[in-house]
């Protein structure tokens, strides 16, 4: 008998999840390797190994704890890492950036969680990324409490990935740094950056023509020695974001305000810690600018104001201290340099930059 034409057709076999872009078996294989990395970056307060649905951390040893948290990502710096096939440094960028953010409140970083979204990264590439996360956590005595690795076929192109994370720190209640005590006459002490850190990469990639459709030539350029830099351009662009917690910890009692110089540059970030009634005067030429910034500015024909708005220009962190505490601060921070001072100012806080590159 002929089949009834009105009857529903036999549904086709359901596609396997792996064919759709998510290989659960591969994920299971890589989990023990990630667990081993997390085990190398732990603290005594961690009450659960990576594996359960959540991480547990004991705060009982912290007196009057105020938790301080920050979430961030690496941004388009991951595209440079992909071009060069270097996956072991962007995890450091992520952790260090987040640590610096909670440091601005005077917080000791305690634990970190990462989120890696990708499409068709190999097991080794995933492990390399998380290895960078774990290495930075270990160096800062931060526990890698957990994370997530998500295969996102359809959302990302093959080989693409994004990396984000959250750090949680603690400061004793009443000792948090909020900038309220900043007053005219205070000094600005800068700690140097080692390059772009994790901000301004969309502009830098545009200046150097580092787009996907130019990848073969771009990789050759990134690997070649750049005379202005004294190293390959790729090495300068991939240098990990610095973490300032290890050296700044002892100087925290002297700090009235701390600004992490990220997107928005010195003007945008220093203004965030200033109270009403003051302005910050920053003297250009009082610190060393890594040559990568001059190279970007010249190649891209970028104005001074735009450079200072987009990039850190060689300043990774600015701490505000009383003038009487400058010598003590510099004694604790040998890399530090005085780059300006706080002045009285009517109206909203602002940052003024004067002078020229030496």
Structure overview:
The structure is a single chain. This protein is α+β, with helices and mostly antiparallel strands and 358 residues long. The chain contains 12 helices and 12 strands. A 6-stranded mixed β-sheet has the order 8-10-5-11-9-12. Strands 1-4-2-3 form a 4-stranded mixed β-sheet, with helices on one face. A two-stranded antiparallel sheet has the order 6-7. It is globular.
Task: Provide the descriptors you would attach to this structure in a database record.
alpha+beta; 12 helices; four-stranded mixed β-sheet; disordered N terminus; 358 residues; 32% helix
Major sheet attributes: 6 strands, mixed
Which blocks of ≥5 consecutive residues have pLDDT under 50?
1-9
What is the mean predicted local confidence, pLDDT? 91
Physical arrangement of strands within the biggest beta sheet: 8-10-5-11-9-12
The number of helical elements comes to 12
Helical fraction: 25-40%
Measured on Cα atoms, how large is the radius of gyration?
A: 24 Å
Q: Structural class, please?
A: alpha+beta
Total count of strands: 12
Question: Separation of termini?
Answer: 93 Å
As a percent range, the share of strand residues is 15-25%
The secondary-structure element order is HEHHEHEEEHHEEHHEHEHHEHEE
Q: How does the overall form come out from the CA principal axes?
A: globular
Q: Concise description?
A:
This protein has 358 residues and is of the alpha+beta class. It is built from 12 helices and 12 strands.
What is the topological layout?
Blueprint lengths: L23 H17 L24 E9 L3 H8 L5 H14 L4 E11 L4 H17 L3 E9 L9 E12 L14 E6 L8 H8 L6 H9 L1 E2 L4 E2 H6 L6 H4 L8 E4 L4 H6 L7 E6 L7 H10 L3 H7 L4 E7 L4 H7 L4 E8 L5 E5 L4
Parallel strand pairs: 2-3, 9-12
Antiparallel strand pairs: 1-4, 2-4, 5-10, 5-11, 6-7, 8-10, 9-11
Helix pairs in contact: 1-4, 3-4
